[in-house]
Structure formats: C-alpha cells, structure tokens
C-alpha cells in the first residue's frame, strides 16, 4: 500500500464518493464489508424459513399470494447481496458454506419460531420494519454495490412492512377476541428479539467505531434502535397492543421513548447457536444446499462453457 492510495481512499470517504470494486481499499475495509454483506445475505435467505412455515396454511388466496411474493423478494435480496460480496472477491459458495459450518453469522431474529398466523403480520411489521430502519441508512454506505443493492431492497421491504401492518390491522379491528389475543401473544414474543436485531449497545459493539469511520455504517446500533422504537410505539397504540416492556415511556426531555433493559444473555445464546430454532434452521439450509447442488453445478458448468466460447 502506498500513502497516495490510502490518502485517495480516505479523501473519497470524506467527500462521500462511493468506493467501487476496482478502487484500492484497505484490506480490513474489504474484510469488514465481506463480513457484513455476507451476514446480511445469509439473513435474507435463512429469513425465508420462518415465513415459509405458514405458506400452506395462509387463510386465503390473497394472503397466500402476498406471502409468497414476500418470501421470493427475500430470496432476491439474498442474491443481490451475494453479488455485492462477490465484487469484493468473496466466492459465493464458499461464503454459503462458511455460514452452514457456523463460521459466519446471520440475524438472530430468524432463530425464533413462528407459532401463529399473527406472526406473519408481526414479522412484516416489526422485523421488516426494523430491517428498513437499518437499511435506509445503508443506502448511504460508502461501498457502491452495497449502497445500490440497498435502494431496491428498501423499496421491497417497505411493501413487506405495510402488508404486515395491514394483516395485523385486519386481525385486531375486524377479528374476534381470540384473534386479538393471538396478535398480542405474537408481539409479546417478537418485541424484544426485534430490538436485538440492531446489535449490542454501541459501547459493547466490536465493529461500530471503525465502520462509522469508514462510513460502512452511518449510525450506531443504539441510535437506529431508538429510531425504530420511536416510530413503532404509536403504531402499536393504533393497533391497541401492549408492548411487553413495563419501563417503556415517553420522555419529554429527550423527545424519545425510554425502554427497559434488553436481555443480552438471550441475544448471546441465540448468536452462539443455542436459540429456539438455530439447529432446525441450519439443518434445513444444509439439506437445501445438498439437494440443490446439481443446480449450482449445472449453472457453473454453463457459465464456464460460455466463457470458453467468448474466449475462442
Ligand atoms: N444477529 O460490532 P457489532 C432482514 C454480531 S435482514 C446476529 O455491532 P456490526 C430482512 C455482529 O455480527 C436482517 N449477530 O456488529 C428480512 C458482530 O459479530 P462479528 C439483517 C449479530 O456488524 C426480513 C457482533 O455481534 N440485517 O431482516 C446481530 O457492526 C423479514 C458485534 O456486533 C442486516 O444484516 C444480530 N442481530 O453491526 C428477511 C443489516 N447483531 O460479525 C426475511 C446489515 C450484531 O464481528 C424476513 N448489517 N451481531 O463476528 C448491519 O447493519 C450490521 O451488521 C448490524 C451489526 C447492525 C446487524
């Protein structure tokens, strides 16, 4: 590395000029991006599983079509993100195997079970809602291919969030007491895991300071989590739901909601692989990888043949 290269990189970061695949970049910047983008891609793919659990039990054709479209969108998001990681030199299959071998993470939220139909609305409203808050900020991330992938992903996530909220609105406003109780039970289970999606408090975060400096992340974990809470509480009130946090209250002075302590022990357990569904999720993904091997091999063989043709 020459000083001139580093200066050029730092100057681009300072001026908010995107870093592109052929630009020189510090090795640690490249590695941190591969880590975050791959983790994000894995989350989109594993994230299809909790919803797929309810596809065959959707209560109407309309709901089934919406859910199916949403799950397919998540697959697409995974693909854009694997492509973005490839521009940094991360070979896709190797990245996928790293996740299947437990060497790479995916979002903690997808290790929780979906026990009722209300969970389909809750995932759209809370999980996609949390994902959007994070991803809107990532549209301004410093790495070009990641930022551009986020623009399209955010548009689709926005539809996901809305369909979730609409589903829940119908259940609580037009449903019976049992259906309202089902929605309350769902938020009781998903509220805290949704807050954990934003990662540990900044003071305990390993990557935040450096990622902020490089503008990979544009905000810290706590600021984004707070933003999500501030947006979501009034929406919960409209639905007539009680957020399962007795310490949650509006703070006139700060202009934000105060919230109770997050159970970081639970978060660590889930991230280490001991959440309610970790084993199940990994087994399903491993089986899918094994059964889909021939498709990958056929795709790669076709690609190789095309390259030979082009070169001839
Ligand atoms: N789960 O130092 P930090 C979606 C790890 S997409 C598991 O603060 P960082 C769409 C973290 O990796 C949801 N691990 O980390 C959808 C690090 O370990 P490492 C995914 C977590 O990267 C909806 C360690 O803890 N979104 O939902 C989690 O600076 C519905 C210390 O943390 C993204 O990935 C966690 N929740 O900040 C799909 C967005 N949090 O890697 C289907 C992009 C932290 O050093 C259905 N990612 N860790 O070994 C990001 O913005 C960041 O990576 C954060 C974490 C904010 C998630």
Run of helices and strands: HHHHHHHHHHEEHHH
* Number of strand segments: 2
Mean pLDDT: 96
Largest sheet: 2 strands, antiparallel
Explained architecture:
The chain is mainly α and 312 residues long. It has helices at 3-14, 27-46, 48-52, 61-86, 92-100, 118-138, 144-174, 177-196, 208-213, 221-239, 264-274, 278-291, 293-311, and strands at residues 249-251, 256-258. Strand 1 and strand 2 form a beta hairpin. Helix 2 (27-46) packs antiparallel against helix 4 (61-86) and helix 7 packs antiparallel against helix 8.
Keywords:
312 residues, 2 strands, two-stranded antiparallel sheet, 68% helix, globular, mainly alpha, binds Phenylacetyl coenzyme A, 2% strand, 13 helices
Concise structural overview:
This protein is mostly helical. Helices cover about 70% and strands about 0% of the residues.
List the helices and strands and how they pair.
Layout (H helix, E strand, L loop, with lengths): L2 H12 L12 H20 L1 H5 L8 H26 L5 H9 L17 H21 L5 H31 L2 H20 L11 H6 L7 H19 L9 E3 L4 E3 L5 H11 L3 H14 L1 H19 L1
Antiparallel strand pairs: 1-2
Helix pairs in contact: 2-4, 4-7, 6-7, 6-8, 6-10, 7-8
The structure holds Phenylacetyl coenzyme A.
Phenylacetyl coenzyme A (FAQ) binds next to helix 2, helix 6 and helix 9.
């Amino acid at each position: 590395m020459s000083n001139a290269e580093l200066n050029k990189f730092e100057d681009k970061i300072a001026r908010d000029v995107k870093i592109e695949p052929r630009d020189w970049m510090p090795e640690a910047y490249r590695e941190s991006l591969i880590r975050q983008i791959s983790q994000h891609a894995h989350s989109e793919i594993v994230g299809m599983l909790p919803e797929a659990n309810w596809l065959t039990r959707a209560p109407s054709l309309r709901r089934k079509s919406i859910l199916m479209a949403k799950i397919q969108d998540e697959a697409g998001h995974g693909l854009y993100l694997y492509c973005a990681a490839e521009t940094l030199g991360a070979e896709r299959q190797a990245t996928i195997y790293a996740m299947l071998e437990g060497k790479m993470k995916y979002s903690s939220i997808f290790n929780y079970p979906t026990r009722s139909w209300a969970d389909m609305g809750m995932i759209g409203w809370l999980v996609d809602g949390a994902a959007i808050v994070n991803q809107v900020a990532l549209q301004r991330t410093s790495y070009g291919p990641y930022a551009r992938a986020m623009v399209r992903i955010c548009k689709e996530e926005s539809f996901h969030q809305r369909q979730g909220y609409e589903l829940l609105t119908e259940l609580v406003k037009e449903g019976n007491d049992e259906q309202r109780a089902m929605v309350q039970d769902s938020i009781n289970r998903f509220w805290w895991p949704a807050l954990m999606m934003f990662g540990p408090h900044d003071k305990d975060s390993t990557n935040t300071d450096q990622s902020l400096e490089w503008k990979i992340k544009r905000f810290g974990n706590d600021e984004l989590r707070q933003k999500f809470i501030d947006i979501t509480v009034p929406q919960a009130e409209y639905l007539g739901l009680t957020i399962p946090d007795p310490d949650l209250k509006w703070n006139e002075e700060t202009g934000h909601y105060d919230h109770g302590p997050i159970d970081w022990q639970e978060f660590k357990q889930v991230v280490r692989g001991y959440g309610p569904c970790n084993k199940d999720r990994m087994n399903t993904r491993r089986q899918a990888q094994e059964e889909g091997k021939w498709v990958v091999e056929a795709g790669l063989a076709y690609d190789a043949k095309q390259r030979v043709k082009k070169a001839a």
